[in-house]
Amino acid sequence: MPAIQMLGITKRFDPVLANDHVDFSLEPGEIHALLGENGAGKTTLMRILYGLYHADEGEILVDGQLAHITSPKEAITLGIGMVAQHFTLVPSLSVAENVVLGYTRGLGFDPLAAQQNVAEAAARFGIKTDPAALVRHLSVGERQRIEILKALYRNARVLIMDEPTSVLVPQEVNVLFETLERLRAAGLSVIFISHKLNEVMAVCDRITVLRQGRVVGTVDKTETSQAELACMMVGRETFGVVRHGEHPQGQVRLRLDHLNALDNKGLPALKQVSLEVQAGEILCIAGVSGNGQAELARVLAGTLKPAEGRILVEDQDLTGSDPSRFLAAGVGRIPEERHEGTIGELSVAENMVLERLDDFTRNGLLDRNLIRRHGEQLIAEYQIKAQPTDRMRTLSGGNIQKVVLARALSGKPRFLVASQPTRGLDVGATEYVRSKLLEQRDQGVAVLLISEDLDEVLALADRIAVIYEGRIVGVIPTQEASLEQLGLMMSGACPQGAARGGNS
Amino acid sequence: MEVLLIGLLAATLRVATPLILGTLGELFAERAGILNLGIEGTMFCGAFVGFVVGGATGNLWFGVLAAIVSGIFAGLLMGLMSVRLGVSQHVSGLGITLLLTGLSLFGFRLIYGEPRIPPSIQPFTKLSILGQVPILGEILGQYALTYIALALVPVCWWVLYRTNFGLQIRAVGENPEAADAAGVNVFLTRYLALAIAGGLMAAGGAFLSLAQLGAFTYGIIAGRGWVCIALIIFANWQPVRVLWGALLFGGVFALQLRLQTLGLKLPYEAFLALPYLVTIAALAVAGRNATYPAALLKAYKRE
Ligand SMILES: Nc1ncnc2c1ncn2[C@@H]1O[C@H](COP(=O)(O)OP(=O)(O)OP(=O)(O)O)[C@@H](O)[C@H]1O
Ligand SMILES: [Mg+2]
Question: Among 3.40.50.1370, 3.30.450.20, 3.40.50.300, 3.40.50.150, what is the CATH number of A239-330+413-504?
Answer without folding.
Answer: 3.40.50.300
